[in-house]
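Researcher: Watch the backbone:
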Amino acid sequence: MNPTSDNQLGLTSMTGFLLLRAGQILLARAEASMESRGIRVRYCFILAAMADAPDVSQHDLSQAIGLDAGTLGQLVDEMQEKGHVERKRHPQDKRRYVLNLTDAGRKELATLMVHMREIEAEFLGSLSTSEQRSLHSMLERSLAGSWPEVFECTDQEPLHRNRDEQEKETAPAFGSRL
């Protein structure tokens, strides 16, 4: 194949661009859905990250989600005020904080995840369940080593499913990871 052919040089020939664009579309749809609740998507991301890693430090959470420490601190303050997050001093390092979900935070996350699952299911609905699982698995492998250790990807099931196939299958429900 000629490496300079048009299909090798076009924008959609770059997997990175396709991943970026897919992420942008999903984020825009999620933001629109969450707006009616008065919550930004990153609020959901933070709650989900805390569900994955109890006693997570604000520093590790900041790195995993890609938010600067100041912005994360403000969001955690807001989450504390709403009763969704508990922030305590790290037991061994009093300069650091550890974060945990409260029962109210878990309940809020469960509600938010319903919206996120619907958005992903709609976006990925043209893929079979097997393709969706493969995509999820490939992304996890590609991202391995890119997270703070406490958030390393594990072979968790993706959140999304094609609705037609979901009704046909009797497999267990997908995991809770975003």
User: Anything to note?
Assistant: Residues 44 and 59 are 18 Å apart (CA to CA).
